[in-house]
Design a protein that fits this description.
alpha+beta; Deoxyribonuclease I, Chain A; six-stranded mixed sheet; 6 helices; metal-binding; Exodeoxyribonuclease III; double-stranded DNA 3'-5' DNA exonuclease activity; EC 3.1.11.2; AP_endonuc_1
């Protein structure tokens, strides 16, 4: 089973690249972030034509998450992250696919910091940890995947100094991510690449892509039931270099049956 995550940065603008990636790599499950469309604008028919069933949680102009499954209907289990009934941002979608609980996550960026956006990020991360703990306690085979907007360690960024003031690598952000892992979740990419140097995002500005000035913020966290099945993980880096590409590359994990 192959589970992938891809911050597509606007599903309408990137649809040709997204379909291209699906056809070339054929993940069992593809979790998308930043679809940036209302529900009625989601191109489900385009994915159906490729053999993918889909569910989505949209929002006008920004945010938005989706889950695609190859020949399988995702069974939605949670829309929106619990813990704040007033939070209307479309950042969390969860479904059962082939015996695995999969969550597509678009965690708040938090910039500028300090300020209300950073406070929202940290509060959101605590809500995520609480909900994740409930899934973990039920021993549901679960993958929490998506754009976490956290650079976990200095080894996960091309230049710690260049990103020092960014919300993505503030001590509070890193501590919140570390607490999540300490609850029993396995960071698949980090586990198989302990020396770091793996990037999933390259900014459009300042020649970041050709200079390979990137960092790792797209993560796949596995519950113990899935961590035991971990066989491979990687980044489809080449797709970042294609015409009109997202600023993120797809990231994936392979699980033994």
């Amino acid at each position: 089973m192959k589970i992938a995550t891809f911050n597509i940065n606007g599903i309408k603008a990137r649809l040709p690249r997204l379909k291209e990636w699906l056809k070339e790599t054929r993940p069992t499950v593809a979790c998308l972030q930043e679809i940036k469309t209302q529900d009625e604008g989601f191109p489900a028919d385009e994915f159906e034509a490729l053999g993918y069933k889909s569910i989505w949680h949209g929002q006008k102009g920004f945010n938005g998450v989706a889950i695609l499954a190859d020949g399988i209907e995702p069974v939605e289990t949670q829309r929106g992250l619990p813990g704040d009934p007033d939070d209307e941002q479309a950042r969390y979608l969860e479904a059962d696919v082939a015996g695995v609980r999969v969550a597509s996550i678009y965690l708040p960026n938090g910039n500028p910091q300090p300020g209300p956006k950073f406070d929202y990020k940290l509060t959101w991360m605590e809500r995520l940890r609480k909900h994740a703990a409930s899934l973990w306690a039920q021993e549901i085979p679960t993958a929490l995947v998506g754009d976490f907007n956290v650079i976990p360690e200095d080894k996960d960024v091309w230049s710690p100094k260049a990103m020092a003031s960014d919300a993505l690598m503030q001590p509070e952000s890193r501590d919140a991510y570390a607490r999540l892992l300490a609850d029993g979740w396995t960071d698949a990419v980090d586990t198989l690449n302990p020396c770091g140097g793996v990037w999933t995002f390259w900014d459009y500005q300042a020649g970041a892509w050709p200079r390979d000035h990137g960092f790792r913020i797209d993560h796949l966290l596995l519950s113990p039931e899935l961590a035991d099945r971990l066989s491979a993980a990687g980044v489809d880096k080449e797709h970042r270099g294609r015409e009109r590409a997202s600023d993120h590359a797809p990231v994936w994990v392979a699980l033994e049956d």
